[in-house]
Each structure stands twice: as C-alpha cells, then as structure tokens.
Amino acid sequence: MEITKQTTMGEMLEYDRGIAVILMQNGMHCVGCPASIGETLEEACTVHGLDSDAIMEQIHKYLKENGK
Question: pTM of the prediction?
C-alpha cells in the first residue's frame, strides 16, 4: 500500500497500527477517535497545525524500516 497525504487515517492504521505511534508523538492524540478515521492525513495535519510533508517522511521512514 502506498500512503499519501490523501490516505485516510483509518486506512493507514488498518495497514499498520505502528503508524499511530508516529502520529501521537507529533501531537495527534485523536487517532483512536471515530471521527478521525475518515479524515485524510493532510486534513488531520491541518487541524492540528502540523506539517503533513514532515509527517509523511516519518511514516515512510518507519514503513521502510519495517519492510513495507
């Protein structure tokens, strides 16, 4: 699966729950909230005032390190 800024939070977490740790470390503590599941990564970053490109880099690094 390719994760982009248009991937929903639900899709990302279904693919790899470890992504939740990255999101929470960056201040997105709502990853378990039912309302966040349908948001894209870009929407969630905007709501939290985060740089979606920086978060994407962290997620891609994590996935690469874990063979995905």
Answer: 0.89
